[in-house]
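Example 3.2
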Amino acid sequence: MTPPEPASSPAPEATPEAVVRAYWAALEARDWDGVAALLDPGFRAHFPQSGETFDAAGWVRMNRAYPGDWHLRVVDLLVAAAPTPAEARVVTEVEVDLDGRTDRALSFFRLRGGRLADLREHWPEPFPIPAWRLGPLQP
């Protein structure tokens, strides 16, 4: 799979959707400068499951160091209503392929001034259907 062309920062009037799509395109392209350009100076990323928090530089550094030849695709994107465009919120579901496995990330973005200001990212693990839901509860 060939990564897309590196992304550049969206124009100041870019929609929240365009900013988030540019972020995912920059990650897929390994365009670390492009990722950094989309982050607000006060950016914070949180992994609630592990308790980790990253600032902008740490977030770029962690993604750059992620091992393997991973590839991602946006499965779904939702722009939530906000009091003002400057306070926009965007939610994405992304699939990440690595070494024959597909993982899923649910990402909750908050934008400020056309840049990503806050990110909460959840990486759910697949699990078998619990016994109590087998049988009559299945369609």
